[in-house]
Amino acid sequence: MARVEDGTLLAGQGRFAADAAEGAHQVVFVRSTEPHADILGIDTAAARAMPGVLGVYTAADLGLDGARLPVLTTPNPAFAEATGFQMAEQRIPLLATERVHYVGQPIVVLIATDRYRAEDAAEAVTVSYRGRAPVTDAATALEAEPLYDHLADNEIARIGYSFGDPENAFGRAHRVVSGEYRIGRHGAVPLETRGAVARPDRRLRRVDLTTSTQIPHLVRNAVRTVTGWAEHEIVVHVPDVGGGFGTKANVYAEEIVLAVLARQTGFDLAWIEDRQEHLLSAAQGRDQVHRTRLAVDGQGRILAWGDEFLVDVGAGSLWVAGIVANTAVHALGPYRIPAVRMSGRAVLTTKTIVAQYRGAGRPEAAFALERTLDAAAAELGIGTARIREINLLTDTDLPYPRPIPYRDGEPIVYDGWDYRACLTKVRDLLPETERERLRAEHPGALLGYGLGCYLEATARGPYETARLRVLDDGAVELATGAAAAGQGHATVFGRVAATALGIPEDRVRYRPTDTERLPDGIGTFASRSAVVAGSAVHNGAMRLLDRARALAQEVLGGPVEYAGGVFRRGEAEIGLGGIAAHTRGDPTALDVTETYRPRTVTWTMGVHAAIVAVDRRSGMLSVLRYAVAHEGGNELDPEIVRGQILGGVAQGIGGSLFEEYGYAPSGQPLSTTFAAYHLPLSTDVPNVAVAHLHVDTPDNPIGARGAGESGTIAAYPAIAAAVDDALGGRIHCAATPLDPGLIHGALRKAAVLA
Amino acid sequence: MKPAEFTYYRPESVGEALHGLATLPDPKPLAGGQSLLTLMNLRLARPATLLDIGRFTELARVFDDTEALVLGALVRHRTCETDPLVAARAPLLHAAAGHIGHLGIRNQGTIGGSLAHADPAAELPLAAVTLGATVHVESATRGKRALSAEELFVSFYANSLEPDELITWITVPAIRPGQGWGFVEYARQHGDYALAGAGVLLSLDARGRIAGLRIGLLNAADRPLLFDEREGTAPVLGELPEPRLWEGLGWRLAALSEPSHPDTEYVKALCASAISEAAEAATERAGENT
Ligand SMILES: Cc1cc2nc3c(=O)[nH]c(=O)nc-3n(C[C@H](O)[C@H](O)[C@H](O)COP(=O)(O)OP(=O)(O)OC[C@H]3O[C@@H](n4cnc5c(N)ncnc54)[C@H](O)[C@@H]3O)c2cc1C
Question: What is the spatial distance between Cα B112 and Cα B133, in angstroms, rounded to a whole number?
């Protein structure tokens, strides 16, 4: 079934940021060409004199000297206390003035009549640098001189906790396996790059900022923090957004500068990022190294688990607290683990800034744990399915408390049903025997089968908002604080509202998010929208209905029956539109803004299975079959849930096989075009069989669980495991993207080359 | 990603184009634009003048000559890939063209543009040197000259043309009885540039022994590498074409390559595989083509 959005999007009638740019002047940023350097001088004179150039500005010219990006998340105190979480202050400037910390960092902003002239002018701006040593590796960064003057070293956040008696368990275990696992730096790379349009209104003293974001309210708040403007002076609008996946759940210097510049110049301004700029300067993700230890008994039961990880957040991350905490929490996995020693650090390097790319710590944690489990299975000579069977939590274990709080400070209690059922189910969907069957079709390849489990906390608070308003014809206008970035919010939330109100879905009009219509909200990320925004919509609709019922009783003079948007009392009736007309004098009568606060997160568990072909001659990989079985809540739209899984798997395959932001030893980024940054193509992604095992959750009124990141998390370990299996254990893949050169080397050593 | 300022001309004839190349400031011919426009958008190329030759229908034709196939410089990759004449007379060129990028790129990109662009990872330059193609060029002041494909390629993205010269025609020796060909490449993704690839043109004598052998490698040096009877393949002349022989030859020739890829050992191994796989295919086809 088509989504509500599809008609316009497929007909090319979407309205994206660039479509809102008509009549606006073009803005381009002059970006650092150096990974790490002092700025000795900035000369904008030549650029100013060029034809079509309307202005060239440094931070000082805009009064933004010293202005910084506000961080987007700080840890809950109870969580920080329990997990030893600490973080240092980050000082990421809006426009660099004294020192640059990555190639692509904005330094100067300029306005021209079109993008061609703007790029000509950008070339004419001269920034003189005195180079400093680049730092492109997290381990090196720990030893290196501090990259920021206000810091004593490059460690920007740390976490460390333990429970049970891990050292004792490591001491007396039947086996302890250890490993080092690396997940490469890559990112969301949405179809639509970043972009924003700012239109100032001098009389109203406000700026309307249309930006391709997942978090309009946080963008607005950041603009206000930097400028001190009142809430009504900056209104953020979300256009159609062509994908975000976390890279747009970030506040960018470019957005804030654009708003300030529009206000100061009085010009309507558009900044539409091009692809090279995106690959250079939009927030990236992953880039973690985990050193693991796993103690098991003779049967393969986990006795203790240790993970010591390092996150490279580049020149900084407004989400560092989220990434580090997510990693440390999700590294506990869906297993019975009695003792844990966990420690993690985030470090600064001279690479591009980092945000929460789909999974944000979860895929990295799953890669470390799942790969270590596979290593233990190999060591014990038991199958990879068997070791999971033994350790996965079942209906007798669940609900399963963990002795640390979640990031919201609430105690962790896994609220699933039977995680082993997901393993059984995925092996039904994609049995290992399928590998044997496929061998005949692929004589030139070695085939392997791999599994990966994940557990993800979804539906993170603290809250989300929705506003519902009855229009004069009885249709209901709906907006949510969680902004749409292509997920299908209009379809899903429209359905939630229509169901609650008992009206046809086509009577709900979903309005894109803006911060005027809905002054409070958080955003779309962290597998949260369906549950938290969906619950706000549901509760808001119920409240709207209560109000309408009370008004209908007033009008009709007594108790009423309700069905399909119409209240009846005997022969007399009045519809929602009728009540709206009746209460015209009080426009708030049928206009409800609802805030939903989840008690805590709800957990989604799943298992991925993959069959991968390794070409005997080249060591190159192709994923032939893929299946996902997951526990989920009420599916508000089964096709959209499936789509989330499929898209997630595609991104996981991309990260496992191809995608990487590479850096030269000189610190220069190597992946600034699609000739160097390889996205998965349709030919790289097989059909994905998906099974949804329904597990109700009483925690929210719509019974939903999050699923937005599930598809990505376990893809990396499942694919890596399949390669190990294809080579009969002659390799243990420990780093992504998987390196065909390394695999080829293992093939040659084993002389299994055809 | 917008080009620096340039002036655009669309000459009406080859003569006009040649005149423009000789007289206009810093001119560049624009054919399919699939390499040049990208470089301009990245501002890695910034010609002052673009001469758009893309619509000269005259140079988009393919002729069958007695011993050769003659292709205009503007023959699209897609034509090489689909034209039955190319498939019959220059099957290696035909096979190689199908590996270039994606359909939209093959619809636009031209053989003249690909040869002039001189990318050592590209398929058509490899096919041209393997087949011993001749490149015909013309200039307004010095008239016509012909050079071998090998002479055209100088280094990474550098050809031996003078700035006022235009490639007009390419002649490719047609496949002869007793000859077999092979083309194999290894790319990580569909449509991607290959990490390694080999073209093989093999001639067998009446006794089934190797009478001639040309082997080209792509992405193995700063230009397409050719090994022929003068250089590299002489030791196997007169031998029986057997898999063991090809494997040994593959490794020997691969050792002479200088891949720019950081994992040189891997790429050399791929070159060796590509050679033996393509040579086996060529052996089989030579046997059938008597
Ligand atoms: C996404 C993408 C993927 C690609 N993948 C591949 C691939 O896998 N393999 C591959 O081989 N190629 C690939 N290409 C490049 C493609 O084959 C180009 O078409 C080709 O390299 C250049 O041909 P063109 O006609 O487009 O030339 P243009 O881009 O128009 O010109 C290229 C150069 O040749 C010069 N030139 C053009 N015609 C003549 C002439 N008649 N005489 C003298 N000089 C001339 C131009 O001045 C310019 O310097 C890819 C391109 C893209 C955009």
Answer: 12
Inside any domain, residue B71: yes
Is the CB of residue A347 less than 8 Å from the CB of residue A154? yes
Whole-number Å distance between alpha carbons of A458 and A709: 9
A665 touching B (Cβ < 8 Å): no
Whole-number Å distance between alpha carbons of A594 and A150: 42
Domain harbouring B11, CATH code:
3.30.43.10
- With H, G, I as helix, E, B as strand and everything else as coil, classify residue B38: helix
Number of domains in chain B: 3
- A276: distance to nearest CA of chain B, Å? 7
Are A741 and B266 an interchain contact pair (Cβ–Cβ within 8 Å)?
yes
- Chain A CB contacts of B251 below 8 Å: none
What CA–CA distances, in Å, run from A134 to A99, A100, A124, A286, A665? 12, 11, 25, 20, 8
Terminal CA-to-CA distance of chain B, rounded, Å? 53
State residue A754's pLDDT score: 43
Query: Of A119, A276, A658, which is closest to B189 when you measure between CB atoms?
Result: A658
Q: Tell which of B173, B200, B220 closes a domain.
A: B173
Can you read off the two tokens belonging to residue A410? 């609430």
pLDDT at residue A469, as a whole number? 97
Q: Give the helix ranges, DSSP H, for A624-703.
A: 638-657
Domain that holds residue B106: 59-173
Alpha helices in A480-528 (DSSP H): 489-501
pLDDT, position A1: 63
Q: Strands B68-72, A206-211: parallel, antiparallel or unpaired by DSSP?
A: unpaired
Asked if the Cβ–Cβ distance from A740 to B266 is below 8 Å, we say: yes
- Put simply, whether the predicted model's pTM sits higher than 0.80 gets the answer yes
- Residue in B51, B48, B85, B47 with CA at minimum distance from that of residue B68: B85
Average pLDDT over residues B96-106: 97
End-to-end CA distance of chain A: 47
SS3 state of residue B128? helix
Burial track A100-136 (b if 16+ CB lie within 10 A, e otherwise):
bbbbbbbbbbbbbeebebbbbbbebbebebeebebbb
**Does residue B143 lie in a domain region?**
yes
Q: Which CATH code for domain A464-596?
A: 3.30.365.10
pLDDT digits (tens, 9 = 90+) for A208-240: 999 999 999 999 999 999 999 999 999 999 999
Min Cα separation A259/chain B (Å): 24
Q: How many CB atoms lie within 10 A of CB A221?
A: 18
Which residues of chain A neighbour B186 with C-beta distances below 8 Å? 615, 617-618, 620
Distance of CA A162 to the CA centre of its chain: 27
Helix H or strand E segment including A31: strand A25-31
User: Tokens 């002052």 belong to which residue?
Assistant: B48
Contact A604, A527 (CB under 8 A): yes
For this complex, say whether ipTM is above 0.85. yes
pLDDT band for position B289 (cuts 50, 70, 90): confident
CATH class label, A16-58+95-132+193-241+248-281: alpha beta
User: B150, B173, B196 — which closes off a domain?
Assistant: B173
Beta bridge partners, B110, equal B76
CB-CB: which of A115, A617, A673 is closest to B277?
Answer: A617
Structure tokens at B273: 């595989």
Contacts of A578 (CB under 8 A, 6+ apart): A474, A555
User: What are B225's strand-pairing partners?
Assistant: B217
- CA atoms of A105 and B112, how far apart (whole Å): 40
CATH, range A285-460+600-615+624-750: 3.30.365.10
